[in-house]
Specification:
The chain is an alpha/beta fold. The chain has helices at 4-27, 34-39, 77-93, 108-117, 134-137, 167-174, and strands at residues 48-51, 56-58, 66-72, 98-104, 124-126, 147-151, 157-162. It folds into two domains: 1-30; 32-179, Glutaredoxin (3-Layer(aba) Sandwich), CATH 3.40.30.10. Helix 3 (77-93) packs across helix 6 (167-174).
Length: 181
């Protein structure tokens, strides 16, 4: 019926369609769930994570600042698209008491290689990959990347977002309350 090469081409086309559908599905931003809402207003967990040099950083170190935790990985296309906007946001809002913390949900060597080619101007910390992962501890129940958490200066979770943050969201999230209209 079909020749060997025709069957192979057909199989590759079906595989490409399946992979394309999965990527498209992951790029869509899911609706907020009850799990997301359960964290809003609660204190952020007492986490301590390590940077690529092995130094520990506690979330408590940033108390008094608005903190945007952005979970990403070197293999996540949408995460990488978002990073230049995060760099710009860090530049713009650092003097206003806000900080972006990139939490790499990836192997340290892959993170180092990626950052050597695409530097970030905000701290990059290594998330815990083993269960329960760092992103799961902060509400990423679907463990979809990118995932962001905004923590207020008082250490409470203000909001979460699955998917790429828009420029308007970054502005809104990082502008200090006293400067918002």
């Amino acid at each position: 019926m079909f020749g060997r090469s025709t069957s192979l081409i057909l199989a590759l086309a079906v595989l490409a369609a399946i992979i394309g559908g999965m990527i498209q599905h992951q790029r869509q931003s899911p609706a907020i769930t009850q799990d997301d809402l359960a964290l809003i207003g609660k204190p952020a967990p007492a986490l301590t994570l390590f940077d690529l040099q092995g130094r520990s950083h506690s979330l408590a170190d940033y108390h008094g600042r608005r903190v945007l935790l952005n979970f990403w990985a070197s293999w996540c296309g949408p995460c990488l698209e978002e990073m230049p906007a995060l760099n710009r946001a860090q530049e713009k809002f650092d003097d206003h008491g806000a900080i972006v913390l990139g939490i790499a949900m990836d192997e340290p060597d892959r993170v180092r290689t990626f950052l050597a080619a695409h530097p970030a101007n905000y701290p990059i910390l290594l998330g815990q990959l083993e269960a329960p992962s760092t992103s799961l501890q902060l509400g990423d129940t679907r463990e979809i990347l990118p995932f962001s958490v905004l923590i207020g200066a008082d250490g409470r979770i203000l909001t979460t977002h699955t998917g790429v943050l828009s420029r308007a969201q970054l502005e809104n999230w990082l502008t200090p309350a006293q400067m918002q209209p």
